[in-house]
Amino acid sequence: MSPILMGTLGGLVAAVATAAGALPAMFGRSMSQRMADTLLGFAAGVMLSAAYFSLILPGIEVAEDLYGSLVLAAGVAGLGIALGALFVWSLDKVLPHEHFKTGREGAEAGHIARIWLFVIAITIHNFPEGLSIGVAFGGDTAKGISVMTGISIQDIPEGLAVAVSMIGLGYSRLKAFLVTAATGLVEVVGGFLGAAAVTVSGQLLPWGLTFAAGAMLYIISHEIVPETHRNGHQDRATAGLLFGLILMMFLDVTLG
Q1: How deeply is 222 buried, as exposed, middle or buried, from its count of CB atoms within 10 A (0-12, 13-18, 19+)?
Q2: Model's pTM, two decimal places?
Q3: Per-residue pLDDT tens digits for 105-139
């Protein structure tokens, strides 16, 4: 199976996990803010671990093999991380969107319906996850499976948190589920683009790995961690983050 196809299917698995997480919201399952913050902390831990163990460190190793210098490899990794973070920051500033707690951000929304602003916000969040899966599969199948597994695991509680938040804002259960499931599809696109980019040229692999890591690190710091600490549940959120980090590290070591 080609790396591009595996990356695309890996993004699809993560998208299905997002939809599966949102499914309980269809049947009246509620969730406390404390639990939501804990689960989001867990998601941040998985992403943080994946960024370092599955993307940055392999990116440095590949760059060292390509350029024959550890110093140059570290420089490539640093620049790749910065470019990935800058990319998501640009999307965050240019695209009009709305977060559940902090409200509207980005460019002027004009007459865009509020629900589409939520869709854009979640899409900005999900795209780097799909990208990381695709890039990982483009470099190594085992590493791709590890990243896909970790991202999919954290997408389940994340999907539930998004669907419950939309219901809390007055949207119907069906619409909350459908919107959450639809936003997961961007991970399929990200998986395809990430795998395609690094498959076309092996020279792009270290850049792709660290770029994806930088994009996820920006989301963790700018979106998830502040969200989990906003309601006074930082202890549980931090415990969730540590558990997610350890779980993803274990998966990376055993599967990758």
Answers
A1: middle
A2: 0.83
A3: 666 666 566 666 767 777 888 888 899 999 999 88
